[in-house]
Design goal:
By secondary structure, this protein is of the alpha/beta class. Helices cover 36% and strands 14% of the residues. The chain folds into three domains: 3-58 and 329-376 and 417-483, Aspartate Aminotransferase, domain 1, CATH 3.90.1150.10; 76-325, Type I PLP-dependent aspartate aminotransferase-like (Major domain) (Aspartate Aminotransferase, domain 2, 3-Layer(aba) Sandwich), CATH 3.40.640.10; 377-414, no CATH class. Helix 5 runs parallel beside helix 11 (310-325), helix 12 runs parallel beside helix 14 and helix 13 (422-434) packs across helix 14. The protein binds 4'-deoxy-4'-aminopyridoxal-5'-phosphate.
Length: 501
C-alpha cells in the first residue's frame, strides 16, 4: 500500500467522525506554494480552498516565511500570553492602519484565543457587558463558529439542544432565494423593514438586544453578499437604537471581497469587528476590535492562554502590509468581477448552475436540479425587475423607502429557483479534484461550489481554474442521480452542516 493510502486509512481509523474536508478531499499534502499543493503521491492541485479563506497570499508566501524566520532567529519568546512585545506592537500598528478610520481612531484591541469562534464569543460577551442586555440579533444562514455562543447565533444552531433563548434571527437579504420572493433592492428593503418592526413593535416578543452580528458577505451560508444599501440601513437602524453592530469579518477581511474590509463597500463603521483567518498570515490568530466607549470590561473578563502567538502576529503583519502595499484588494475586485462574468456564462450554458454570485475573490456557484420545475407562472413576481430574482444584485433602482413594490402573485411570473442540488455540488467537487482543482462546498444545502483563491492568483492561474471548473461542471451535469441520491434529494429540506469548523 502506498504512503498516501496508508495515511488516509489510518486517518479514517483514528480521527473523529466529525472530520470534514478530509472526507471530500482524500489527499495528503506534503508541499505547498502559492496556489499549488503537492500530495504525497506527487499529484499537484490548484488550491481554491486556501485554508477556508485563510491564505490571502497563498501557501508559504516568501514574505510570510521571512517574517516567521526573523522571529525564530531573533530569539524572541514564541509564547507571550498577553504581554507587550515588539512583534505585537508592530502587528497592532499595522492592523489599526487598515481599519475604517471611524473605528481605528478610537479602537481597542482584545487578543482572543486563536480561533474565529473565540473572537465571536468575546464580541458577544463584550456587547452584553457594555449594554447590560442579553439578546442578540443575527441572521438566517449566518455562520459564526462552533463554540456554543457562536453556534447559537448561527444558522446551524438547530444542532444544539435548548439553544438560543436570547437570539433573534432576522432575514438576510438574497436574490436567488429571496425570503420575500422579490429579490434585488426591494427584497433588501423589506428585510430592513422587518428588522425595524421587530425592534419597534412593543409586542414583537423581542426585547431591546445587546447587539447585532452580521457577516458583510455570508460565506458558509452560500456566498451571499449583503447589498450595500441594506447594510447602511442596518447601521442606521442599530445606531438610532443604541444597539452595537458587530461585523464578523473573519472570512471577508484582508482584501478578500475587493476592499480591505468588506464593510468598506457600504461605507459603514461598525462598533465591533471580529477578525481572524487571514490576519494571522496562515497561523492561528483572532482579535476583536471595538470602539473605546464599549471598553467596560474588568481585567480578565476575556482571557486565554494562547493570545500571544508571536509567529502568527509576525506572519499577520507581513500579510496585512503586503496586501496593502500591493493593492491586492483592488486586484481581487477586478479579477473577481472577471471570474464572475466567466462563470455566469457557464451558468447560461448549464441548466444545473442555478446562480453565480460573489464579491471579489469570494465566489459561489449554486448547483440545482435541472430537470425539476423551472418556471411556475404567477407564483412569485416582482414589481421591480421582470424575472429579476435571479442573480442580479445591481438593478440600481435606487428605490425610495416608500416605494417598496408589492409582489403580484397572479399577474406576473418569474423564474423560481430550482431545488438546490447537494449531489451535483459534490459531483462538481469530485470532478474538480480529478482535474487537480480543490474547491470548497457551502450554502444552506451544501449545494454551493465555492472559490476562495489566494489574492495573489495570476490571470493564467485563474484561467486554468475556470477551465478545470467548466470541465468538472460538464462532467457532473452528465451524472444522473443514484436511487439513494434521488431519495435524499426529495428529503432535501433537512439540515446540512457546514464544512468549516
Ligand atoms: N465567522 C465566520 C464568518 C467564519 O467564516 C468562520 C469560519 N468559517 C468563523 C467565524 C469561525 O472561525 P473559526 O473556524 O476559526 O473558529
Amino acid at each position: 500500500m502506498g504512503v498516501t493510502e496508508g495515511i488516509l486509512r489510518r486517518q479514517s481509523a483514528r480521527e473523529s467522525a466529525a472530520r470534514t474536508y478530509a472526507r471530500a478531499l482524500p489527499i495528503v499534502p506534503v508541499r505547498a506554494r502559492g496556489l499549488t499543493i503537492e500530495g504525497a503521491d506527487g499529484r499537484r492541485y490548484l488550491d481554491c480552498l486556501s485554508g477556508a479563506g485563510t491564505l490571502a497570499l497563498g501557501h508559504n508566501h516568501p514574505v510570510v516565511l521571512e517574517a516567521i524566520r526573523d522571529v525564530l532567529d531573533s530569539g524572541a519568546p514564541l509564547h507571550a500570553l498577553d504581554l507587550a512585545t515588539p512583534v505585537k506592537d508592530a502587528f497592532v500598528t499595522e492592523l489599526l492602519g487598515t481599519l475604517p478610520p471611524g473605528l481605528a481612531g478610537r479602537a481597542r484591541v482584545q487578543f482572543c484565543g486563536p480561533a474565529g469562534t473565540d473572537a465571536v464569543e468575546a464580541a458577544l460577551k463584550l456587547v452584553r457587558t457594555a449594554t447590560g442586555r442579553a439578546g442578540i440579533l443575527t441572521f438566517t444562514g449566518a455562520y459564526h463558529g462552533m463554540t456554543r455562543g457562536a453556534q447559537e447565533v448561527s444558522g446551524h444552531a438547530t444542532d444544539l439542544t435548548g439553544h438560543g433563548a436570547d437570539v433573534t434571527r432576522l432575514p438576510y437579504p438574497q436574490d436567488y432565494r429571496c425570503p420575500f420572493g422579490v429579490g434585488g433592492e426591494a427584497g433588501a428593503e423589506l428585510a430592513a423593514r422587518w428588522a425595524e418592526s421587530v425592534l419597534d413593535d412593543p409586542k414583537s416578543g423581542v426585547p431591546r438586544p445587546a447587539g447585532l452580528i452580521v457577516e458583510p458577505v455570508q460565506g458558509e451560508g452560500g456566498v451571499i453578499p449583503a447589498p450595500d444599501t441594506w447594510l447602511r440601513r442596518v447601521r442606521e437602524i442599530t445606531a438610532a437604537r443604541s444597539i452595537p453592530l458587530i461585523a464578523d469579518e473573519v472570512q471577508t477581511g484582508v482584501g478578500r471581497t475587493g476592499a480591505f474590509w468588506a464593510v468598506e463597500h457600504s461605507g459603514i463603521t461598525p462598533d465591533v469587528m471580529v477578525l481572524s483567518k487571514a490576519i494571522g498570515g496562515s497561523l492561528p490568530l483572532a482579535v476583536v476590535v471595538y470602539r473605546d466607549d464599549l471598553d467596560v470590561w474588568q481585567p480578565g473578563a476575556h482571557a486565554g492562554t494562547f493570545r500571544g502567538n508571536q509567529l502568527a502576529m509576525a506572519a499577520g503583519t507581513a500579510t496585512l502590509a503586503y496586501v496593502r502595499r500591493h493593492g491586492l484588494s483592488e486586484r481581487a475586485a477586478a479579477l473577481g468581477a472577471r471570474m464572475l462574468t466567466h462563470l455566469r456564462r457557464l451558468g447560461d450554458e448549464f441548466a444545473c448552475v442555478g446562480d453565480v454570485r460573489g464579491r471579489g475573490l469570494m465566489i459561489g456557484m449554486e448547483m440545482v436540479e435541472p430537470e425539476a420545475d423551472v418556471v411556475e407562472g404567477g407564483v412569485v413576481g416582482s414589481g421591480v425587475v421582470e424575472g429579476g430574482v435571479v442573480g442580479d444584485t445591481s438593478d440600481g433602482g435606487g428605490l425610495a423607502p416608500d416605494a417598496v413594490p408589492v409582489p403580484h402573485p397572479r399577474t406576473e411570473s418569474a423564474r423560481r429557483p430550482r431545488p438546490a442540488s447537494p449531489r451535483l455540488a459534490a459531483a462538481v467537487q469530485r470532478e474538480c479534484l480529478h482535474r487537480g482543482l480543490i474547491v470548497e462546498l457551502g450554502g444552506r444545502h451544501a449545494s454551493v461550489v465555492r472559490l476562495l483563491p489566494p489574492l495573489t492568483i495570476t490571470d493564467e492561474q485563474a484561467a486554468a481554474v475556470l477551465d478545470r471548473l467548466a470541465d468538472a461542471v460538464a462532467a457532473a451535469a452528465r451524472t444522473a442521480p443514484t436511487a439513494q441520491e434521488r431519495d435524499q434529494y426529495s428529503e432535501q429540506r433537512g439540515a446540512h452542516s457546514p464544512q468549516t469548523g
